[in-house]
Design a protein that fits this description.
Largest sheet: 3 strands, mixed
Number of domains: 1
Order of helices and strands: HHEEEHEEEHEEEHEEEHEEEHEHE
CATH architecture: 5-stranded Propeller
CATH class: Alpha Beta
Number of strands: 17
CATH superfamily: L-arginine/glycine Amidinotransferase, Chain A
Protein name: Amidinotransferase
Distance between the termini: 63 Å
CATH topology: L-arginine/glycine Amidinotransferase, Chain A
Oligomer: single chain
Number of helices: 8
Helix content: 10-25%
């Protein structure tokens, strides 16, 4: 009796000469262009920005009821889960004007804007697209939002990414909580994730799993008190330069920046707090809200940084600035 059939022999010989090919890796630029149409993803926060996900504020913000003032001065409904940080309710028309002006600046800089297909019902913070998607090598991670008012934004982001053909490398699941404002690239082999009320250990672990397969180290830090995201404290401006708030960042993280050769410019007490929530559109070219002090602008200028400013206070009143309002999907390498 034969040890194998003729068909088994033929099958084995065929598969032997057509093996699986693990390399190049999924995130290889040429393979991405061939099969996914573009070299999707980001491995830094400062390379020339090519494609970004945004959402123009819309009627979803009308969920805010200004008759529901909380004792600390904000508006909110604990039972329904929504809150609004501004001293006044949302000015939708004004938010749209400021957002439109931001979009124009980005388009003038050659950035392609991808808009969410739509906001989910009552998802009043959908214009802060940074939090729902993290751009990594080869595509995106869809996060899992923390508070009830943001849970569900993941659905519209997923549908939009699928429509444009952007690979989704991971959707956070289980008890993971993480938002994109808690993540930043330091260089193409190092990123940081801030644990806080908006990002837990499990969220960091799941993000780290994706990055580890790409040879990227994820530095994890803990924010103080009820600080939400690192993007209110830290902004990469160039491969070797960052804007920081040293009073609110852990000392070991500041030391890590030094080890990586990243010089820092520290914010000044006269600065509008939202300036650090800016967006680098190319190395040493950054968009910020109005309100940077001459002290800070002079120090950025001395480092060769070009600053584009825009009024954005009405959008910021909802809890997010220019950085929060954009989720990069493609950046050039640096």
């Amino acid at each position: 009796m034969s040890v194998m059939t003729e068909n088994e022999w033929r099958y084995n010989q065929l598969i032997k000469i057509f093996p699986s090919e693990a390399e190049p890796a999924f995130e290889d630029a040429d393979l991405l262009k061939r099969w996914w149409g573009r070299s999707w993803g980001c491995t830094n926060d400062v390379g020339r920005l090519r494609v970004v996900l945004m959402h123009r504020p819309g009627p979803e913000v009308n969920v805010v009821d200004t008759s529901k003032r909380l004792e600390m001065g904000a508006f909110g409904d604990i039972q329904q889960g929504w809150y609004w940080r501004g001293n006044q309710g949302p000015d939708l028309a004004g938010m749209q004007r400021q957002h439109d002006a931001y979009v124009k600046i980005l388009k003038d800089e050659g950035v392609e804007i991808v808009f969410l297909d739509q906001a989910g019902p009552g998802r009043m913070k959908s214009c802060y697209t940074r939090d729902v998607v993290i751009g990594v090598g080869g595509g995106a991670i869809v996060t899992r939002m923390g508070p009830r008012i943001r849970r569900g934004e993941e659905v519209q982001a997923t549908r939009t990414l699928a429509r444009i053909g952007c690979p989704i490398l991971r959707t956070l699941s289980g008890t993971a909580i993480a938002e994109g404002g808690s993540f930043a690239w330091l260089n193409d082999k190092t990123a940081v994730f801030s644990r806080s009320s908006r990002g837990n250990e499990e969220g960091g672990r799941q993000i780290e799993e994706v990055l580890r397969s790409q040879g990227v180290e994820l530095v994890q830090i803990d924010l103080t008190g009820y600080r939400l995201h690192i993007d209110g404290l830290f902004l990469m401006i160039a491969p070797d330069l960052a804007l920081v708030n040293p009073a609110q960042l852990p000392f070991p993280f500041l030391q890590k920046l030094k080890q990586l050769g990243i010089e820092t410019v520290e914010v000044h007490h006269e600065d509008n707090p939202w300036i650090i929530n800016g967006l680098a559109i190319a190395p040493r070219r950054v968009i910020m809200t109005e309100g940077a002090s001459n002290y800070t602008l002079d120090r950025l200028g001395a480092k060769g940084v070009e600053v584009l400013t825009l009024p954005y206070d009405l959008v910021c009143s909802g809890g997010g600035g220019p950085h929060c309002s954009t989720s990069p999907l493609i950046r050039d390498a640096v």
